[in-house]
Amino acid sequence: MGTPAEKRARFRQLHEAGCFVIPNPWDAGSARMLQALGFPAIASTSSGMAWSSGRIDNEVPLEDALAHLAVLADAVDIPLNADFENGHADTPEGVAANVTRALAAGVAGLSIEDMSHDPGKPLYDSALAVERVKAARGAIDAEGAGAVLVARAEGMLLGQPLAPTLDRLAAFAEAGADCLYAPGLKTAEEIATAVRAVSPRPLNVLMGAPGLTVAQLEDLGVRRISVGGALARAAWGGFLRAAREIADEGRFDALGQAATGAELKALLKP
To answer: Is residue 265 part of a domain?
Structure first.
C-alpha cells in the first residue's frame, strides 16, 4: 500500500490531463470494490456515509467524519479525496485546523464548499468564502505533502444562475484551489462554459443521474467526474425495493437481482 505522499503524487497526475471518474464509496467494502473495478481514485460522500450510519447529510460530527476518512484511506491503495463539506467550521482558522486533521487521516485531496448550512443565509459571503479557501490552501502547504484542494461553489443547488457561480469559482482558483467544482451544472453548454471559466485548472462535474456520458464530458473539457451520493442511493434503492416487496407482498423476487456471494468475494479478495 502506497504512502500518503505517493498517493497524493498519483492524484495530482490524474488532474494534469485527460478525464477520469472518481466514484464515491460510503464504507470500506464499497471502497475496495471500486478499486477492484479499476477506478484510479475514489472520493468519500458525506451523504452516503451519513445514511450508512443512520443519519442525514451534514449532521455527522467532525470526529466521526475523520474516523471514516481514515478507514477509507486505509482500505485502498488508490488516492482518496475527502468530501469535507464546509470544513466543519465557519471561520478560516477553523477550516485550516480541520483540514490539517483530515490530511493526517491520509487523504490525497479534499473539497471545501461555500455552503454554510445556515437556513437564513445558506452561502458564505464571497469574501469569507475566499478566505476559507485560502486557509485550506495554507494548511495543505504547511503540511507539505501536496494534497489536492478542491473548492466547491454550491449556488446552483440553491437555484442561483450560472454567472455568480462562475465568479466564485474564478475567485477560488485565484485563492489557491487546484480543482474547481460546481454541483448543479447540467447542460453541455453550462459545463463547457464552466470549463472555460476555470481553465487551465481542472473542473469536476457531478453526475448523479442519467445524462451525458464520460466520453461526452471529456469532449467538453471536463477533467474529473464524481457521482456524489448517487452510488449509495442506487444501493439503497435496491435494498428498499427488495425490502418493500417482502414487507408488502411477501415475495422475494427482487433478491434474484442481488450480487452473488462469489462475486462480492472476488472483488474483496486481496
So the answer is: no
Find out whether 80 and 44 touch, Cβ atoms under 8 Å: yes
Summarize pLDDT for 25-72 with one digit per residue, the tens: 999 999 999 999 999 999 999 999 999 999 999 899 999 999 999 999
CA 195 – CA 193 distance, rounded (Å): 5
Q: Which residues contact 224 (CB under 8 A, 6 or more apart)?
A: 14, 15, 19, 20, 21, 22, 179, 202, 203, 204, 205
172-203 confidence digits (pLDDT tens): 999 999 999 999 999 999 999 999 999 999 99
Domain of residue 70, residue span = 4-229
In a domain, 248, yes or no: no
Rounded Cα distance between 61 and 45, Å, is: 14
Can you give the CATH number for the domain in which 20 is found?
Answer: 3.20.20.60
Residue 133's pLDDT is 98
Residue 32's identity, in one-letter code, is R
**CB environment 92-109: b (16+ within 10 A), e (fewer):** bebbbebbeebbebbbbb
As to burial, measured by CB atoms within 10 angstroms (0-12 exposed, 13-18 middle, 19+ buried), residue 174 is: exposed
What's the pTM? 0.96
Please tell me the distance from the alpha carbon of residue 41 to that of residue 19, in angstroms, as a whole number.
12
Angle between helices 62-75 and 92-104 (to 10 degrees): 30
